[in-house]
Write a structure and sequence with these properties.
alpha+beta, D-Maltodextrin-Binding Protein, domain 2, Dipeptide-binding Protein, domain 3, seven-stranded mixed beta sheet, 20 strands, about 15% strand
Amino acid sequence: MKTKTVLLFCLLFVVWSAVATAEVKNPDTLIEALALNQESLDPYFQYDITSNEPVKNVYENLLAWEGESVTEYKPHLATQVPSQENGLISADGRVYTFPIRKNVKFHNGNSLTPEDVEYTYERAMIFDRAGGPSWMILEPLTGYSTIESIVEAEGGVPYPKMFDKDGNLADPAYKDILVKVFEKYVDPSVEVNGDNVIITLKTPYAPFLSQLPQGAGWFSILDKEWCIEQGAWDGKADTWWRYHDPKAEKDPLYSKMNGTGPYKLVKWDNGVELVLERFEGYWGEKPQAKYVKILTMPEWSTRKAALLAGDVDMAIVDPQYLSQVEGQPGIRVHKKLDQLSVYMLFFNQTIETEGGNRYVGSGKLDGQGVPPDFFADIHVRKAFSHLYNDAVIINDVQGGHAIAAYGPVVKPLLGYTAKEPGYNHSMEKAAEEFKLAFDGKLWENGFKLVAAYATGRMVDKAVLDLIAYNARKLNPKFKVESQSFAWSTLLSDYLKGVYPMWILEWNADYPDPHNMAYPILHPTGFYGSALGAAYHEWANKHLAPLLEQGVSEFDPQKRKDLYREICKRAEENAVIVFLYQPTRVHVEREWVKGWFNNAITESTGRHFYLLRKSAD
């Protein structure tokens, strides 16, 4: 009788286990639904979360973060974390030594060498695409944030003027200047000594190590031999400018990948899906899931249906939709997670109108458009700042899953300043500022413009709709039309200076206030560079000196004071409307195991390496 009972129990357990396992759809494939598409797969071109996600799973960095920590490092492709105690950082804080791991293979079978690391960082410096991530390497290693600024400092000629309309050197003498720049600044910054890579900084640089860990795709290591075979930079000093600042699809690594990471690229149909496959030759412990699929689903209703049906394992869920999935069978929600990011409404103070610009209407202050210098008038910027009501967006639209932002430095970074919701909002003050703008002509004539946001970003649309409603409420002649664009299009076109106003976010690349303030506000930064000549003139006087001082200052209190002053100046001059700092949500099927939150790595795209699917 006892034997029969045991046999029956075992039979029932096997049947139950089979049923439970069958409930897990696509058990060997992790599937994620995103709202946005990728811009590029080149680690040194891409500079957004959606593009960074596949990069961080295919390529690898010298260091990694220890679990959830954003202050503790561990070795990765380097075998030790440099410090002055272990002799791998020089006494003056300028020279870093990285012993490179052996027996690591790229996906094509090539072995990782120190020369690959040298080539990678040197290519990043000369590549330096406009608005890209190369500034994070150039700045600590050369003291400049762009390779073009080095050229102008050395040669006395602006980089663009060195070339004719066909891209050839306008004067043969310019070649000597360009070669000198490489030999003086780029080449000596990264050297190989046996199994070690030696990186020499221009001056001691407070956040340098925090830039390097895994998750930041723009410090990923490339295969030198493979890159050259694809048509990327040939590694020579006398050709580098031919590989500088390419257009996305002209970049040889735009749609190709060859890393050392746990997954390799097998398919990319941009705007539809990207597929990764487990790399069986991975040097570390292999990931449990054989495949990863990253799907582009701009519409929330489509993502929701796929998530609830179990057709996707993870999905981007904007906070206003959280209640539609929270508590649903089979769904797990992690909410109010730390996120080092800020959403912003940008003003272009010198709008590009040459050749026509449909986003500015007539291009005049006649009620049917706006002139190129529309946002150069501080009264216009202040008026728009007062139209925005962060209390409504944070509480009503996002259900409290955000906090009000004051400047670019977010909580809990050094220099953060808290801001109460509703700080800026005032219809009365908005009316006063509009009446002062353009000597009263704006209020009399009205305006019409298009404001841009990314397709699928419904909170961004809600912000613009709120501003448009409040503007019309003040004056029926004020017309703001929101228009959505594919993520890759928005990233490309804002750099061209054609949008008068747009919404984008900034996610920290590494946990330091410099990484928030510099790219957003500096005239050569990722966003600051696109805010127009009028902004650049003002920022060079009032913000750039403080931003440059902040990164070289090691005293915490002095740094804190500097970044608070930077935030204050930006806020008082209404150069950008700092909308809110989101708290992140992560939504997954309950069969997804192994996920944990790291405020940096998870804010820059999902890391699939530790994830698996299981019914238990």
